[in-house]
Write a structure and sequence with these properties.
With 212 residues, the protein is α/β, with parallel strands linked by helices. Helix content is 30%, strand content 21%.
Length: 212
């Protein structure tokens, strides 16, 4: 069997790749990068990668920005594709664009049918919710989102057919919000309120959610 055939088999078996956005600088946290905040004895970025893998994503791309060198040095991210976002200060939209570009390009050596997009600062959303959303994948046109009491949240599964459209509208801290609003009727909502808590770690007060 050739390398190309091996790669095609891998892609067919694992069409959904985890995409973790972990570039934030924690401006309201005194400039502490969110990826390195400790939760359950490990940096948040490790916690989030482990959740994506437990949810069934054998391949995970991680977008880094603030203090990327420190994150590389301190976090165990073996096997992940690490994507640098030099424009991370412009907001989450830039990280989403960088992450999708890494999936669409040839740098990773693989293709994907969809990206399961997760945020590093939401440790209350773990593998059970991620797995539910991932299970909604059908093909490259899939759009699937977690919902909490019927309100759309994270994680979000973006089929490859939507990546260009998402990237074109991802600006500031909006991420995929504008694109998803325009394609609301196409989104399959998956209720996750019974297995996850969708809080963000944005301010000092939010640190109460982190466990030792």
């Amino acid at each position: 069997m050739t390398d190309n055939e091996d790669r095609a088999n891998d892609e067919a078996a694992d069409p959904v790749v985890g995409l973790l956005l972990a570039a934030g600088g924690g401006r309201r946290l005194g400039g502490r990068p969110k990826a390195l905040l400790e939760h359950r004895g490990q940096p948040l970025v490790e916690h989030a990668v482990a959740a994506l893998r437990a949810a069934g994503c054998a391949r995970v791309h991680v977008v880094l920005g603030a203090r990327a060198d420190d994150v590389r040095a301190r976090a165990a991210l073996d096997g992940c594709v690490l994507v640098d976002n030099p424009e991370w200060e412009q907001g989450m939209g830039s990280s989403l664009r960088a992450g999708l570009a890494s999936l669409a390009g040839t740098r990773s050596g693989t293709r994907a049918g969809a990206a399961l997009v997760s945020l590093v600062d939401q440790p209350g959303i773990g593998a059970p919710a991620m797995a539910r959303v991932r299970s909604g994948y059908r093909d490259e046109r899939s759009l699937v989102s977690a919902a909490y009491a019927g309100v759309r949240g994270h994680p979000v599964l973006l089929g490859a057919a939507h990546w260009a459209g998402v990237a074109a509208t991802a600006t500031g801290d909006r991420g995929a919000r504008a694109y998803l609003r325009e394609h609301e009727a196409e989104i399959a909502l998956v209720e996750c309120g019974d297995v996850a808590r969708p809080y963000d770690i944005d301010t000092e007060a939010d640190l109460i959610h982190l466990e030792p």
